[in-house]
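> @MW can you paste both from yesterday?
MW: sure, first one:
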Amino acid sequence: MTDTFRNMAPPPPQSLLADLPKAWPFEEAAKLATRLAKTGAQRALFATGYGPSGLPHIGTFGEVARTSWVRHAFGVLTGLPSRLIAFSDDMDGLRKVPDNVPNRAMLEGHLGKPLTRIPDPFGTHESFGAHNNARLQGFLDTFGFDYQFASATDYYTAGRFDAALLRLLEVYDEVMAVILPTLGSERRATYAPVLPIHPETGIVMQVALTKIDRDAGTVAWRDPESGKSYETPVTGGHCKLQWKADWAMRWHALGVDYEMSGKDLIDSVRLSGKICRILGSMPPEAYTYELFLDENGQKISKSKGNGLSVEDWLRYAPPESLAQFMYNAPHRAKRLYFDVIPRAVDEYLANLERAHAQDGAALMANPVWHIGGGAIPVEDVPLSFTLLLNLAAVVNAERADILWSFIRRYAPAATPEGNPLLARLVEHAIIYYRDFIRPAKRHRAPDDLERTALAELAAELPHLAQGADETAIQTLLYDIGKRHPFPDLRAWFGTLYQVLLGQAEGPRFGNFVAIYGIPETIALIEAALARPADAA
C-alpha cells in the first residue's frame, strides 16, 4: 500500500436520517445501527464464513473486504465498538478431493473425515484444514484486515458451542419441522441436523438418529455398514451440525449481528434465520452479493481453482485495485479474469484523484475512502495504468528505467522514490506486458484511406507549438479524423490503435503522444506506412 496518507479524523456520530454518505457500506451500516438501537446493544459482531475444503480464493477475500467496509462505516456512523470474526468451518467432512492439490490419492482415503483430522497433502501443517486456514489468514493479513480467526474445530472441542447444542436438542422437533419440508422424500427419511463423529473411523456420520436424550445431552444412532449402535454426546466436539443448522447455531451462540453471503445461499439464509429464531435469537442482518464468474462465465470455485487467485491479481496490479473491483456494485455478477485488471486500476486512480478534492460526505462516498479505512493516499499519479501498458507495448519495455525515461517527459518531477504508487504500477505494467500484451500484439497494414490520414498526421505533428500538451494533440487528431471520410471518429481512433499499437483499443491517444513524444510517434507512423499491405 502507499506509505503517505491524508488521515481523516472520524466525524461525530451522524443521524441515521440525514447526511448519510451515498455509499452502500453506509446503507448497510445504517441497517445494523437500527438493529442495535432496537436491542439496546452497545457493540456489534460481524462474521464471515469460510469452507476450507479447497484453497482460499479471491471470493473469500471479497467477502472479508466488503464486510470490513461495512464495519468501518458502522463505527463512523455510530461510534460503537465492533469485532469481525473470520470463521472457518474446518470440522466439516471432506466430501470430495479438490482438483488443485497434490497427493490426491492420499486424500481419497480420508473422505468423510473432518478437515482438521486429515493429513496435509502439502506436508506443511498438521492437517489439511490447518493448511487451508493458514492460507486464508496469510492472504487476509496481506491486506491488513482487522479480524479474529475462529476455527469450528476449536469452538466445538473447547465447549464454546455446548450450551447452544443442548438448546438445539430442547427444540429438536421444531427445528426438524422447519427443515424437513425443504428436503426430498428420500433425504427426509435419513436426515438429522446432528452429525455424530464416528468414535472408531473419525468420519462425520450423516445418519438417522434413533434416540434423542435431552436430559443426558446425547443422540443414539446406528452405523449403516456394521449395524453397531452408538450413543454420542452432542457436546465437546463429539458431534457437529449439518451446515444450515450449524450456521444458525453459530449465529445464536456467538450473537452475530451482521454476515454477508452469496446469491446461491439466499434460501439457506432464510432457513437458517428461522432456526436461529427457534433457538431464541434474532438472526443477523444479511447482505446478499452476486457471484464472480470465470472467463467462461462459470462460478469460481475453491475446489476447481478456476478464475483468478489473489496471488494472480497481485502479480499484475496493486492491492488497491483489487479492493476497487470488490467495492463496485456487489449486487451485480462480475467476470473475474485477467482482462478486468487494468480497468480496475484506472478506476481506483480516478477515484483517488477525485478524493483529493473532496471532503465530508462526498469523500465518504468515494470508494478510496472505504478502501483506505478513512486514510487517503496523498500521491498524485500523473498517468493511467492503461497508458503505461500501451507505452510498454510500443517501446517493448523490459525494464522500469525505459518507462521512467518516457514518464519524465510527461511529468518531469516524477521519481520512483517520490511516487511509490506510480513506481509499483510501472513494475506491474512490465509484467502485464510480458504475459499478456506482447503475445497478443497484431499490427495490421493501413488501407488507402487510413494511409492518407496517417500521412497527414505525420506531416502536421511537427507544426504543433513546442511543448504542446495532450489537449492540443487530441484536437489535431480530431481535426484530421473529421477531414477524411471515416464512418465515424471511432473508426479513425481504431486505426491508430490497430495500425500503430497492434491492439483493438487503447488510451486517449493525445495523452499517449504527449508521453511517448512527437518525433517517436512520427517514426511509428512512418514504420506503419512502410509496412507491406499483407503484413500482420
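MW: second:
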Amino acid sequence: MSDTTLETRVLIIGSGIAGCTAALHLARKGRDVLLVCSGLSMDDGNSALAQGGIVYKAPEDTPDLMENDILTAGWNYNHLQAVRYLCLRGPEVVQKILIEDLQVPFDSLNGSFHLTREGGHSLARVLHCADYTGRAIMDAYVKAVKKEPNIKVLTGHTAVDLLTTHHHCTRKEIRYHLNNRCMGAYVLEQATGNVLKVLADYTILASGGMGQIYLNTTNCRLSLGSAVSMGHRAGARMMNLEFIQFHPTALFHRGPRKFLITEALRGEGAFLVNARGEPFMHKYDSRKDLAPRDIVTRAIVDEMLATHEDMVFLDAATHIQNPDKRFPTIHKKCLELGIDIRDQLIPVVPAAHYFCGGILVDTTGRTTIERLFAAGECACTGVHGANRLASTSLLEALLWGQTIAETIASRHGARSRLSQKTKASVPDWKFLGNKQNEDPVLIAQDWATIKNTMWNYVGINRTRPRLQRGFEDMRNLNKRLHDFYRETPISQPLVELFHGCYSAYLITTAALRNKQSLGCHQRNEE
C-alpha cells in the first residue's frame, strides 16, 4: 500500500448532524470510521447554523398530525413511506440520541421542554436551544466524536470523486459486473495538494446542500453541491433537483452569506410588513405569516415589486415579549448593524436556503449504487416533496444518519467487505494537468457567472425563456470547466468550482424539464 492510500471500513464525507450520527453509532458497534470534511473544523457546515430547532412532538401530537403537516407543506409530492417513517420513528430517535445520550441542553419551561411553532405546523412541536439549536447540537456531537477511538477525523480534506467498479477498476472481470459498487473516494489534502485514495467497504455522502451556487444564500461557504456532483458522475439516480427552497426571511445586509432570521420568530408572534409598514400576508394565504415557506417567499417578492423596494420588514417587537432574550443570536447580529429588534423593524429578503432534492435514497439510506449511502441535505428521501416543512431537516438528517449506521452495522461476514482483488484494481490518482493557468480572477468570474445565472434564471420565479438561457449558459461553462479541469493541476478552488458548476447545471436541466409549477419550483409562463 502506498503512502497515498488509506483503508477504512466506513468512509463518511461530511461532518454535520447526519455524518456525525452515523459515525458515532458505527464506532460504538466496533467499526472503524474515517470522517472527512472540507472545513478546518468539524462544525464548519450548515448544521451549526440552524437556528429554529428540530421537530420533536407536542403533548397532543400524533404521527398522523405531523404527517399531514409535512404532506401539506410538500404539496403532496412527498414519498409517503418516508414521511411515515420520519413521523413514527423521528421523535424516538431525538429522545434517545439528542436528549438522553448527547444531553443537548434544549430550552425548558416549568419543568418541561419549551416547544415552539413554525410556519406550516399545526402545533408547537419544535424543540430548540434559544435561536442557536444547530450550534448546541454540533457542540455535543464534536465532543462525543473526539472521544471515540474508532473514528478518525480528517479536516481540511475535500472529496474529489467517488471510486466505483464501473469507472475505476482496472480488472475487466470486475468491470463486466452489471451492478456498480462504490469503493471509497479520491480525497484532496488541501494543505499539500496531495490526492489520497481512500478505500472503504461502505461510503456515506453527508456533505450538505448547495446554496452557494446562488447569489444570495443563508448557507455556509462549503455548500457547493459536491455530493450531487460526485454522485451523478458516478451514476447514482437523482430526484427533485429543481426544488430549491428559498427562506423568506434572511437579514438584508452585505456579505457572502445572508444571516438567517429564523421562522420561529414568526411562530412566536412576529409578522411581516411592507415598506409602507402594512401587514400583507393575509392577502396571500389564510395562514398569514405562518404559511409554508414557498408561499411566504413569493408573497415577499410580490410586495417588493409592488412597493419598488429591495426588502420588506419583520416586526418582532409588537407581539413578542423580550425578543432579545428568546432570540439572543438574532438580537446580537442586528445590533451590530444598528437595529434593535426590541423596538425596530428587521429588514429581510428571501435567500436560497435548503435543497429539497438530491441523491435518491430509500428508508435505509441506500442509493442506486451498491455500498453507497447518502443522508442529510444531499439526499432525497422524499420527505420534503416540493417544499420542506420548517425544522424537519435536522430530524431527517438525524434519523437517516442513524438508520444508515444500523444498516451497515448489521452486515457481517466476508460478503460485507470489499475483496482485496477489488481494492488492488483501483489505481492511484492520476495528475492530468500541467498547465499553470489557474487564475484567481478567472475563478472569481466563473463563480460570479454561476451565482448570477442561478439567481436570475433559476431562482424564485422561473419562466421557460429564463430557464432556457440559464441552461445554455451553464452547459457552456460546464463544458469549458471540464476541459480546464483536465489541463490544470488539481487544487481546492478548482475542485469547488467544478462541483458548484456541475451541480448548477444539473439543477437548471431539471428545472427546464419540469413544466409543472409546484412548491419551490414556480414557473410563471405567459
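> thanks! The mean pLDDT is 94.
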